[in-house]
Structure formats: structure tokens, C-alpha cells
């Protein structure tokens, strides 16, 4: 983890080559140099963020990155079947996740490790899926953070339906009460998913029923090997107007802007004023998954052009320049991150192997004769090996 | 006891569920003001309002997907798909999401969503309006699939589907919507996932479901004139299948025909034939025969009578059955 550098002065020359910047201005509060800029509309939404909270935000981002590094290493060592890196997207995830309230329900895709962390999902628990011991991992109801969904965009209509349910629950509440106590939903998806019909259908439903939902798209520029230009000819945020609600295009590597914009959008949605679409323009700094090889489809110059925009570097620069973070702070965060990573690694090795017989239990909620028949057959089949395998376990 | 059509029975069953459980709600295209293209939800919007009877955008994946989300929030949504052939834009949501949510969450989440699909042919319609895709869904673990064949079942099975904690697809035999029958509004002991012997016999068994139950009963009546006593089992539930009732009948009669409108290849009939051969092989006097659709897209209306299983095709199969 980098702990020292400011953004290079050369970053001036690197601000334009990416397609994202060429598509127009982004909402930005903290620039690549770590300098704060006032935004007439959105600065107010982070006016309460003091030095302590900024350090805490940085810490979340650093821990997320360290976790990502550890999980990647575990996969390379054959301990995980697959890993989905989120390097480069920490600001979009920590900023948006921290904007939510405990009653809000989050529907992630499969890369939202940072969002999960802001919702108190244990990092190690996120590895269960990738270690092949669970298809869910954590209890979604515990922190209102839904399971990861592998089928692209399939969770977006679920999020919309959940938000429609919130509308039903709160149908007799006035605007004030909704704003104060109301729940909302955030649906996460990527630029690739934005081409799926489920995203389109969800936006139609959400708009038609004024569902309290924020669509949070992390445009990380690449759907595995296919660049953003193949997904859309226009900035995704501009599509929202076609559905009849507001679209906001935010610098996804600026954690303050992501926090501010998501707070605004959630406030708007929970008040009963309908959905908001946020396109967080960011960059996937590593592979799509550990099965992917980005060298086959994108130039290293492009990757290098995004390095100065690293969301951690700019927050570090600001913390240092504002006096809110010194060497001791960053060294402590790095040490804590290493300790966390070691703990995650140790815990991952303690996950018990699942037993297939248990899988029969959760196919149906109510008794089912075929399940009874097949599970009984399997029990007897396994019992046939009891002499050679004590306890019937193999 | 009151007499009503299957359509009215489903309408009344939905009404009763809406009355008894405030978390239940209906969603689908045209189900509100129009009352559905088959008027199955007629009058429900006026009595329960737009929060309980929701006219949705025209988007099947959106309908199923939002139903899943509403179920996760604690509601019991009942989706209407207008026609069998239009369910496929929602197939992904049904098979990859709805069916698996409970298993993926290791039992922590249930999604008690009901999907109503008018299905089957014989209405002289255009393509995609007459299909029988039940086997495609039955192959997916996590779903329950039922199909009523008479008004009494239609009235009660829809209510039991809504009460069920698992996702249930209700295939409604659209060409029987106007078939009248007696409905007992006192709750019966028979649950929606059990088969029922609807005609006793001792020479052969016909297992049928949904739209073909009346055909099987008529064929049994015709066979009786030739001296054959044919038992008819109304399967009622396609997933799970009540094999105990089917096997008990075969053990009594020794001969079995399975009849459905869907193509025989890869269909429910093959599953039943296979299970019966495993469980009642020594009771069988003849191979299990299937009477169903051909391996072709559902044909145009002018020739659908040739495609659909009818009394004559069942009698022909009975003749073959008795040559053994």
C-alpha cells in the first residue's frame, strides 16, 4: 500500500486521455491532487465530515484494498476458486456505502467488498462464496446487505421490488416522517450490467412507482474485455432523463463526492420523490476476476493514466496537507490492515467443509416428497461406506 | 356449495386471499382496470385499490424480479403472466433467482411468490399463445408447480399457493376457464400438492392434469362402453409429483397412460413412466404409454385439433395398452 506519494505533477497531462473525462464534467469535491473544491449543490452534504471521520473513511478504503490484495493472494495460492478484485473502486464503494442508514437495504453485485465492509459484513465472511463453502456467505438480514448476485443485473429488479415494498409499508407516512425514519434501497451494478434488460426494466418500474431507490452504477470502464464505448454511446447518467428521473455523474475516485451525492440521492428517494441514478466514473485497476488477463485487451498506458487518480492517494494527500494525517497515522493504518489481512487468512482456513446432505434442507421451505426420497437415498448410500469411513464422512 | 366457472373460482380465491392476508398483492399487465386479458382479476382493483392490485409496466422480467424484491420485504406477491409463451423474458428471474433464493441464502430467505400463467392450446389463437412449458420449470429445483382442472381445485389451489412459503407457479388451463363446477367454500383436506383419483377403475389408469383431465374422463367414459374400466388420476401438482397416488393406482390397474399437451419428449410423462417402472415394475402388464404433443413448435390454429391429445388418441393408446 502506498503511504507517501502525492499525485505526480505530471498528472496534469494525464487528465484527458480517458473517455470518461472527455464526456463532460464530473461532480468532484476532492481533485487528483488532494485539493478540496466547493460545490454549490453538494458540498453541504459533507459539511459535517470532520478530520476524525475523514481518517475513518481513509481507513475503510485502506482496509478494503488490503483485503483485496489478501484475497487475490489466497486465490493465487489455490485457496479460493476465484476472486473478484475491487482495486480502484474503493472511493465509490466506501463513499456510497457510508451514505446509507442501517434500515436501508443494499443489493450488491459481486464486487462490492467495500460497500459490504461499510455495512459491517466481516471481510472473512465474504470469502465463503469464493472458497466454495457457501453460495451466500453472510446473513443478509443481519446488516441489510443482500447476498452477491452472479447473474448480471438480476438483483436490480429485486432492489426495485424491495423499494416498492417500502413504499407500501410507508404509504400513510408524510414526507417529513419518511425523510426522518424512512428506509431506502441502493442497487449496485456495473457498466456492463447497464446493458442488461433488467436494469432498463427496473428503471421503468422504479420511475412509475416512485420507488425509494438509488441506482448506483460503478462505471469502471471495462466489462471484462469489452470497453465502455461498446455499452453506451452516451454517459450512463444521461440515460436517467429518459426514465424521468435525475442522473448524476460523479467522480467515482473521489470519496467525498461519492458520499455527498449518495446522501443527496438517498434523501431524495426516501422523501418519496422517486429514484436517482448515480454513475460513479471510476476505473477497475486490476483484472475483472482472477481468471481474467487484462494485458490481452487494454494498454498499460491506459492503466498508468489512472494511477494518479487512485482514490487512496488523493485522500492521503488531502489528509497530509490539511494536517489531519501524518506518517504515524498512515503507518498505523497499514499495520492494522496487515493484522486484519492475517486474521482474514486465518479465518478462511477454519471454514468447515460443507456436507452435501445439508443442501437438501434449503431447497424448499415446506416438506417436499422428492427431497425426502433423495436425501434418504443419499443417507443410506453414504451409510454403506461407514465401515471404511468412520462416521460416514468421506 | 356454489357453481362457478374456473375463471370465477380463481377470481374468488384471489379475493379471499387478498381479504385474509393484507400482505398479499397482485401484479401484472392489464390486471387492474381491465381485469386481465381473461378477466381473472375482474373487480379486484375496485375493491382493493392500486396498492393491492398493481397494473405493471409491460416487462415480464421486471414483474418477476420486483415480485422477488417485494417478497424479500415481507409481501406475498401474485404475478400474472398474460400467456404461456410470454413467460420467457422472465425465465431468467424464475430459474436463476426465484427458485434458488432460499438455497443460496442457506434457508435464511424465503420468497413466497406466486406466478399465474394461463397455458395450453385449443383456443384457436396465434403463436406463443398456446404453449405448455411446464416441464421447463419442473426441471428446476426450488419451484413448485400446480395446475387445477376444475373449479373446486382452482378456488382452493390458488389460495394454498399464496399461503405456501415456497415459490409456486400456477399453470391455469385457459381453455377450461369457462368450465363450470361446484365449489365448496369450506376448506377441503386435500392439499394443492397431492394428486387425486377423480374416477375409479380397475383395467387401466390415465394420469392427466390441467386441460386434459376432462379429456381423460371423457375417454374413460367412452372406454367403459367397450367394457374397460379406466381409472383417472388428476395429477394437480407437477412439482412435486405425488407418485404415491400414481403408483397405488397402477398397482391396482396394471396399466398406465400419461397424457399431457406438452411435447412427449423430455416431458412430465417420461418422468412418470420412469418412476412407475422403478416402483411398480412387477405390477405393470404393459409398458407405460405417453399421449402428448409432437416434437414441433405448437402448430397454427387450423391444425391444432390434430396436434392436441383428444379422446380418440387416448382410446387408441388404450387399445395398444390392451394388446399386451
UniProtKB/TrEMBL annotation, chain A:
One of its GO terms (biological process) is branched-chain amino acid catabolic process. The keyword Oxidoreductase applies. The keyword Ribosomal protein does not apply. InterPro entries: Alpha-ketoacid_DH_E1_comp, DH_E1, PdhA/BkdA, THDP-binding. It comes from the Bacteria. Its cofactor is thiamine diphosphate. Gene3D superfamilies: 3.40.50.970. One of its GO terms (molecular function) is magnesium ion binding. PANTHER family: 2-OXOISOVALERATE DEHYDROGENASE SUBUNIT ALPHA, MITOCHONDRIAL (PTHR43380:SF1). This is Pyruvate dehydrogenase E1 component alpha subunit. It comes from Zhihengliuella halotolerans. The lineage of its organism: Bacteria, Bacillati, Actinomycetota, Actinomycetes, Micrococcales.
Automatic annotation (TrEMBL), chain B:
Residues 4-179 form the Transketolase-like pyrimidine-binding domain. It is an enzyme of class 1 (oxidoreductase). Keywords: Oxidoreductase, Pyruvate. GO terms for molecular function: branched-chain 2-oxo acid dehydrogenase activity; magnesium ion binding. GO terms for biological process: branched-chain amino acid catabolic process; response to nutrient. Its EC number is 1.2.4.4. Its cofactor is thiamine diphosphate. It holds the Pfam family Transket_pyr. This is 3-methyl-2-oxobutanoate dehydrogenase (2-methylpropanoyl-transferring).
Amino acid at each position: 500500500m502506498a503511504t507517501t506519494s502525492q499525485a505526480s505533477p505530471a498528472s496534469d497531462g494525464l487528465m484527458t486521455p480517458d473517455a470518461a473525462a472527455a464526456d463532460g464534467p464530473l461532480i468532484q469535491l476532492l481533485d487528483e491532487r488532494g485539493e478540496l473544491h466547493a460545490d454549490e449543490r453538494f458540498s453541504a452534504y459533507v459539511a459535517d465530515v470532520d478530520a476524525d471521520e475523514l481518517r475513518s473513511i481513509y481507513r475503510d478504503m485502506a482496509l478494503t484494498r488490503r483485503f483485496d490484495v489478501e484475497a487475490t493472494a489466497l486465490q493465487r495460492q489455490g485457496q479460493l476458486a476465484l476472486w473478484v478484485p475491487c482495486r480502484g473502486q474503493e472511493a465509490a464503494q466506501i463513499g456510497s456505502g457510508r451514505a446509507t442508514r442501517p434500515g436501508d437495504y443494499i443489493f450488491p453485485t459481486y464486487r462490492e467488498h467495500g460497500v459490504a465492509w461499510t455495512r459491517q459484513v466481516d471481510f472473512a465472511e465474504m470469502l465463503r462464496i469464493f472458497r466454495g463453502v457457501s453460495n451466500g456467505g453472510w446473513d443478509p438480514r443481519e446488516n441489510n446487505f443482500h447476498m452477491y448476485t452472479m447473474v448480471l443485473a438480476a438483483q436490480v429488479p429485486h432492489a426495485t421490488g424491495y423499494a416498492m415494498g417500502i413504499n407500501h409499508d410507508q404509504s400513510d407516512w408524510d414526507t417529513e416522517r419518511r425523510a426522518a425514519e424512512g428506509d431506502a434501497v441502493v442497487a449496485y451494478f456495473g457498466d456492463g450490467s447497464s446493458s442488461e434488460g433488467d436494469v432498463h426494466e427496473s428503471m421503468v418500474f422504479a420511475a412509475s412507482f416512485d420507488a425509494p431507490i438509488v441506482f448506483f452504477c460503478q462505471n469502471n470502464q471495462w466489462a471484462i474485455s469489452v470497453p465502455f464505448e461498446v455499452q453506451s454511446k452516451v454517459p450512463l447518467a444521461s440515460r436517467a432523463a429518459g426514465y424521468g428521473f435525475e442522473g448524476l455523474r460523479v467522480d467515482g475516485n473521489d470519496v467525498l463526492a461519492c458520499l455527498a451525492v449518495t446522501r443527496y440521492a438517498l434523501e431524495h428517494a426516501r422523501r418519496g420523490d422517486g429514484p436517482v441514478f448515480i454513475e460513479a466514473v471510476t476505473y477497475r485497476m486490476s483484472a475483472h476476476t482472477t481468471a481474467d488477463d487484462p494485458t490481452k485487451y487494454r494498454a498499460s498506458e491506459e492503466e498508468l493514466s489512472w494511477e494518479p487518480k487512485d482514490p487512496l492517494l488523493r485522500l492521503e494527500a488531502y489528509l497530509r496537507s490539511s494536517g489531519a494525517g501524518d506518517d504515524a497515522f498512515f503507518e498505523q493504518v497499514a499495520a492494522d490492515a496487515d493484522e486484519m489481512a492475517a486474521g482474514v487468512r486465518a479465518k478462511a482456513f477454519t471454514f468447515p467443509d460443507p456436507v452435501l446432505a445439508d443442501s437438501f434442507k434449503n431447497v424448499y421451505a415446506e416438506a417436499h416428497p422428492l427431497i425426502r426420497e433423495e436425501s434418504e437415498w443419499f443417507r443410506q448410500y453414504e451409510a454403506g461406506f461407514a465401515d471404511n469411513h468412520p462416521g460416514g464422512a468421506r | 356449495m356454489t357453481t362457478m366457472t374456473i375463471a370465477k373460482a380463481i377470481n374468488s380465491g384471489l379475493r379471499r386471499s387478498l381479504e385474509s392476508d393484507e400482505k398479499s398483492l397482485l401484479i401484472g399487465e392489464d390486471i387492474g382496470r381491465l381485469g386481465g386479458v381473461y378477466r381473472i382479476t375482474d373487480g379486484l382493483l375496485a375493491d382493493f385499490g392500486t396498492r393491492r392490485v398493481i397494473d405493471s409496466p409491460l416487462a415480464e422480467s421486471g414483474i418477476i424480479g420486483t415480485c422477488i424484491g417485494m417478497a424479500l420485504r415481507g409481501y406475498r406477491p401474485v404475478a400474472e403472466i398474460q400467456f404461456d409463451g410470454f413467460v420467457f423474458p422472465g425465465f431468467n428471474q424464475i430459474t436463476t433467482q426465484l427458485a434458488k433464493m432460499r438455497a443460496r441464502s442457506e434457508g435464511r430467505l424465503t420468497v413466497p411468490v406466486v406466478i399465474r400463467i394461463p397455458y395450453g392450446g385449443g383456443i384457436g389463437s396465434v403463436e406463443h399463445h398456446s404453449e405448455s412449458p411446464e416441464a421447463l420449470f419442473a426441471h428446476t429445483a426450488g419451484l413448485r408447480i400446480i395446475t387445477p382442472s376444475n373449479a373446486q381445485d382452482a378456488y382452493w389451489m390458488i389460495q394454498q399457493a399464496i399461503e405456501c412459503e415456497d415459490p409456486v407457479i400456477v399453470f391455469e388451463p385457459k381453455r377450461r376457464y369457462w368450465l363450470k363446477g361446484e365449489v365448496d367454500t369450506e376448506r377441503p383436506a386435500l392439499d394443492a400438492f397431492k394428486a387425486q383419483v377423480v374416477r375409479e377403475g380397475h383395467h387401466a389408469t390415465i394420469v392427466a392434469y390441467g386441460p386434459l383431465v376432462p379429456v381423460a374422463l371423457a375417454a374413460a367414459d367412452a372406454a367403459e362402453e367397450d367394457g374397460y374400466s379406466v381409472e383417472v388420476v388428476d395429477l394437480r401438482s407437477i412439482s412435486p409429483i405425488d407418485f404415491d397416488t400414481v403408483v397405488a393406482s397402477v398397482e391396482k390397474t396394471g396399466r398406465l397412460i400419461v397424457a399431457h399437451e406438452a411435447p412427449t419428449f423430455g416431458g412430465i410423462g417420461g418422468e412418470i413412466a420412469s418412476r412407475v417402472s422403478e416402483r411398480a415394475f412387477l405390477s405393470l402388464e404393459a409398458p407405460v404409454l405417453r399421449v402428448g404433443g409432437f416434437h414441433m413448435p405448437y402448430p397454427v390454429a387450423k391444425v391444432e385439433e390434430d396436434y392436441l391429445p383428444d379422446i380418440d388418441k387416448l382410446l387408441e393408446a388404450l387399445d395398444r395398452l390392451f394388446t399386451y
